[in-house]
Every structure is written in structure tokens, then in C-alpha cells.
Write a structure and sequence with these properties.
By secondary structure, this protein is an alpha/beta fold. The chain has 2 domains: 7-189 and 302-376, Rossmann fold (3-Layer(aba) Sandwich); 193-295, Rna Polymerase Sigma Factor, Chain: A (Orthogonal Bundle). The protein has helices spanning 134-148, 161-172, 191-205, 222-236, 239-245, 269-282, 287-298, 309-313, 333-342, 360-363, 369-376; strands at 7-9, 24-32, 38-49, 59-63, 87-88, 93-94, 99-103, 155-159, 179-183, 319-325, 349-352. Strand 10 (319-325), helix 9 and strand 11 (349-352) form a beta-alpha-beta unit. Helix 3 (191-205) runs antiparallel to helix 4 (222-236), helix 3 runs antiparallel to helix 7 and helix 4 (222-236) packs across helix 6. 48% of the residues are buried.
Length: 378
């Protein structure tokens, strides 16, 4: 199969610099997939901040998490980014010095080719969208790097699924990654993580509106997607945080103990909170993309087809920065320690102290600023 050379569509400001924090696109041609089959004419959406220097040595790739977007930091838009504590002018990753890129993963719904994109017949892929692994997404991103003229990333950084993507980069393209930060994720998805993920995908697939994935043009499986998000969000937050914030309190005057008719009782505050999280995601995310990306994360195993974990990681050339959230009950700190011990050399595991659980990699990332800055951005 012949692969077309990537082409870039960008927006420039009056100084000729691509606008920070605005969506741009690269067409990377056809993508052969690890699990078989291929996607023709794949489009990748990305945002960038700063200016690539003459020898392209200041490029930093930041990978988003499962339902994250490319909008890491502010730029041409005033919309707040999800890692403002870490990225921006004067921040740890100073965009006056570094050229930062964030790519929407293949299978997503924020501009890159995914299930809601049109297939060659002009209709949405829907149920026909193939399994795309994190290794496939890395292959796609390598072509974007080629299109941007980046032979080697100064650093590839991510948290949660973004950390898994960063790790895959360091092993799939060892000569193209100088530094790699893997935050709040291990070297592979465990049986428990796969089990939680399966419950989420089934919640979507069993929604009557799902229609096997071919719901475009009709009612979307909003109830299933909202339920999937509820399941996920329980794993993103710690038991201590839920108890502290909500306890057994009723939501306003909706007491669950007023002996109503079956199915019509009120709600506890924690139920209202999960309802809110579910409904919020429905407004911004595609159910098929949620399934596709969840299954991509289920496939996460950096050692697949590469021998033992130590053997797989031995080919990496990057300097590694590994961090865990101390209260994480989705990706336990033990998994970060296992990864660090298997990496070449001596790798310290840094700790984000956050009582809220896994989401601490988002809300408390500023804690890692000094260490990450000293390691990669001094």
C-alpha cells in the first residue's frame, strides 16, 4: 500500500507564526493497523504553542487522557487548558522557549479521524470503525512529527492514557524521544482495569439507541454514555474524597428516605454528582469514540510482542520521569513502581500528594513542576 506524504493545514497570525492553542490538521494518508485492516486518508487534529526552532530541538509532545482534548493551555482562545499549571508562558514548560504539540488520538472526536468521521462512502464509520491500539496511534503521530519537521522530541509527556501513549512512543521510536514522562499509569492495563473498562463499553453498547454503533442521524446513546462515565468517575476519585464531599447526605430536599413509590425516590448527593458528571460528558463526547478509546486503553501493554517487560523497555533511549498519585485507586502507585524498576538505569517514582484519587494527575500536576522542570526543562 502506498502512503501519501503528510500534508499540513494551519492557521497563521500576522507574524507568520501558527496560532497558539488553535486547532490545526494534518492528513497522514492510510494507516495500517496492528489488529488488521487499515484506515484510509487519516486526518489528525492538533494544537501547538510556541515556535519550533531552527534545528527542531525544542519540540515537546503532550498526550491527552481518555476523554481529553488537545487544548492543554490557552493561546489564541481564552478557553482554559487542562494543564495550565504546567504549560504556558513562564510555566514549567515555557511556551516562550519550547514548541509544544498536543494531538487528538485516532478514534477520538475532537478533529482526528474517528467513528463519527465519514468513511470513503461518505457515511460515518460508526460500527465499521476498526480496533485502533495505542501503538497504532503512535505510528500516526510519528507521521505528524514528520510533517512538522520534528525528527526527535525533546520530551513526550502524558498522564493516565496520555502516559501510556508517551511510554509507547519511547519504545516504538526510541531514537525519536529524548525524555519521557509517564504519569499515573503503569506499563500495561491490568485485569481489574480491563474489567472496569468492559463495564463502561457494555453500558454504551446496551443502550437501545446505540444501534450497533450506527446511531448517527438519529438519537444518540446518551443514557449509556452517561452511565459509562459514572462507572469511570468512581474510579477517578478516591473513597475518602467522596466520603468527605458527600457522605450520606441527601441532595437538597430529595431525601432518599421518604418512602416514595418504587423507582421514584430522591437522591444522595453523591448520586447527583455522578449524574452531573455523566450528563456533562454527553454534551461534549461521542459514544463510539468512548468505546474506541476505552478499548485502545484496554490494549495497552508496552511489552506485547516484545518479550518480557524489562526486555521491551531495554530498547528505550529516553531519560524517564515516572510519577504516581498517592491516592490513585485506578492506576495504583505500585504499577508506577513496577514500571520504574523495569526501566533501564535507576528511575525514581515521584509522588503527587492528592486526596482526590486518580484525577490528581490533572488537578495537582503543578506539584511536579519543580521536579519535572529540573529533569527535562532546566
Amino acid at each position: 500500500m502506498t502512503i501519501a506524504a503528510p500534508s499540513v493545514t494551519s492557521k497563521h497570525n500576522e507574524n507568520g507564526r501558527t496560532e497558539d492553542g488553535t486547532l490545526k490538521y494534518v492528513s497522514i494518508g492510510a494507516l495500517e493497523l496492528e489488529a488488521g485492516g487499515f484506515l484510509p486518508d487519516v486526518l489528525l487534529a492538533y494544537e501547538s504553542w510556541g515556535t519550533l526552532n531552527a534545528d527542531a530541538s525544542n519540540a515537546v509532545l503532550i498526550e491527552h487522557a481518555l476523554t481529553g482534548s488537545t487544548h492543554v493551555a490557552r493561546g489564541g482562545s481564552d478557553e482554559e487548558g487542562w494543564w495550565e499549571q504546567l504549560v504556558g508562558p513562564g510555566a514549567t514548560i515555557d511556551t516562550d522557549r519550547w514548541f509544544v504539540v498536543s494531538v487528538n488520538i485516532v478514534g477520538g472526536c475532537y478533529g482526528s479521524t474517528g467513528p463519527s468521521s465519514n468513511a470513503p462512502d461518505g457515511k460515518p464509520w460508526g460500527s465499521r470503525f476498526p480496533l485502533v491500539t495505542l501503538r497504532d496511534s503512535t505510528t500516526a503521530e510519528a507521521r505528524l512529527a514528520d510533517a512538522l519537521g520534528i525528527d526527535r522530541w525533546h520530551a513526550v509527556i502524558g498522564g493516565s492514557m496520555g502516559g501510556a501513549r508517551a511510554l509507547e512512543w519511547a519504545v516504538s521510536y526510541p531514537a525519536r524521544v529524548k525524555n519521557c514522562a509517564v504519569i499515573a499509569v503503569g506499563a500495561y492495563s491490568t485485569a481489574e482495569q480491563i474489567a472496569f473498562a468492559q463495564a463502561q463499553t457494555l453500558a454504551i453498547r446496551q443502550d437501545p439507541a446505540f444501534n450497533g454503533g450506527d446511531y448517527y442521524g438519529g438519537a444518540a446513546p446518551e443514557a449509556g454514555l452517561a452511565l459509562a462515565r459514572r462507572i469511570a468517575h468512581i474510579t477517578y476519585r478516591s473513597a475518602a474524597e467522596l466520603d468527605f464531599r458527600f457522605g450520606r447526605n441527601a441532595q437538597d430536599d430529595e431525601s432518599p428516605l421518604q418512602a416514595p413509590a418504587l423507582g421514584e425516590r430522591g437522591r444522595y448527593q453523591v448520586e447527583s454528582y455522578l449524574d452531573h458528571q455523566g450528563h456533562k460528558l454527553v454534551r461534549r463526547f461521542d459514544a463510539n469514540s468512548y468505546v474506541a478509546l476505552t478499548e485502545a486503553l484496554m490494549s495497552h501493554d508496552v511489552s506485547r510482542g516484545r518479550g518480557s517487560l524489562k526486555e521491551a523497555l531495554s530498547i528505550a533511549e529516553a531519560n524517564f520521569f515516572v510519577a504516581a498519585v498517592n491516592s490513585d485507586r485506578l492506576y495504583f502507585p505500585e504499577q508506577s513502581r513496577e514500571l520504574a524498576e523495569a526501566l533501564p538505569g535507576t528511575v525514581e517514582v515521584h509522588t503527587i500528594e492528592a486526596p482526590i484519587g486518580h484525577d490528581g494527575f490533572l488537578t495537582e500536576i503543578g506539584q511536579l513542576g519543580p521536579q519535572l522542570g529540573a529533569a527535562f526543562f532546566a
